[in-house]
Amino acid sequence: MSGKCALHRTLKFSTYVLPSNVSERLQGETQTNQRAELTAVVRALELTKKIPKIRIFTDSKYTIDCSINWYKAWQRNGWKKPNGDDVLNQDLVKRIRVLIDERTNHGFDTLFQWVKGHSANAGNIAADRLAVAGAKRK
Question: What's the pTM?
């Protein structure tokens, strides 16, 4: 099972999860590329709760770092950045961590793999198409 997350500047997102594909508009007032990428990971994790091993392919190093690296320091610091400002998108990062931790507690593996954006990667191409479709929805 592979999860693929793609993001585009027109604020759309998609989750490419075989065999279930999701194409949705990004909800909420705050519309950023990072929120779209993180939302796609949330949806991929929600759709694969019962699958023992998943690999999420994303072209967003930001999303990978938030999900598996940076969150540790943010938790220790009360979700504050070193300058004292609140961590952006913490609602989504926290949700991702809850979902990953639930998977881990069940002995499931959740892996992330970076792929080059706008490349010949089949998953990236499929996610791009889904993202365009999602952006056209109301």
Answer: 0.77
Domain that holds residue 13: 2-136
> Six-digit token pair at 90?
């913490």
Count how many domains the chain has. Answer: 1
**At 123, is the secondary structure helix, strand, or coil?**
helix
Question: How are strands ordered across the β-sheet holding 12-17?
Answer: 21-25, 12-17, 2-8, 53-58, 109-114
| DSSP-assigned letters across all residues of 19-52 | S-EEEEEPPSS---HHHHHHHHHHHHHHHTTT-S
- CATH number where 90 lies: 3.30.420.10
* Two tokens, residue 107: 């002995």
pLDDT in tens, 112-130: 988 877 666 666 666 666 6
Residue 104 burial (10 A CB sphere; 0-12, 13-18, 19+): exposed
